[in-house]
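Repro:
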Amino acid sequence: MRETHEWTDAELATLEAHYCLRGGAFVRARHPNLTPNAIRQMATRLNLADDLREYTPARQLAQEAGTTRTALWQWLARRPWARRHCRMWGHELLLPAPVVALWLPSRRRAHRPRGWVGVKQAASLLGVGLVGIVHRQCAAGELDAVKVRGEWFVDPACLPARLPTAPPPNHISVQALAAVSEISPKAWHAGVPEKVTVKRSTGRPACYAHERQARHFLTARGHRAEQVETLLRRAVALDVARVKI
């Protein structure tokens, strides 16, 4: 193999330590004088594989999971196909991202966390009628939840606040304001930043804006005072009659 660059000890140490973990771009960022071809040639001579996968130390992974490194080693001992993809960096075991993703679902708590609630109680606290919605949010990681022997438990302190079922006084829905003023709801949402979300009996939650902010918004768009009052009365009438807009 043709060699056109004289490697220093620091460059070789950086290549051996970081090429398999970070890739050639990381080595070149540390030593800008190296070319991609020279890095690839020397890595081939040293039998280094540039897989560009993120690795996580076993010590850090065990601390974040609240377990010991022994438990992680036992899990890898039963899965030699996963252990083959791990690397040793000094005295530290490094796990690639695919192995970490496979190990995280395997963590199971033996007992229910103190103060955490089940899926049904979490659904009632959220005001959701279907338990499957909470199940999907737990599986997607949207809620702070943990699975204990096949059942999900949610931290009630991390649940979002339940939406009110009635709008505050002197508030008008954005949909009614958009219908009577012929202004798009997107423009209302952008022009009136402070809004209150209210849960409806059917359909999606509705956003309500204060009359004072709606009056300022219409005035800024060139409406006269009598036009503004007329539009607000018509919007209030739509909300009171509960007309489906």
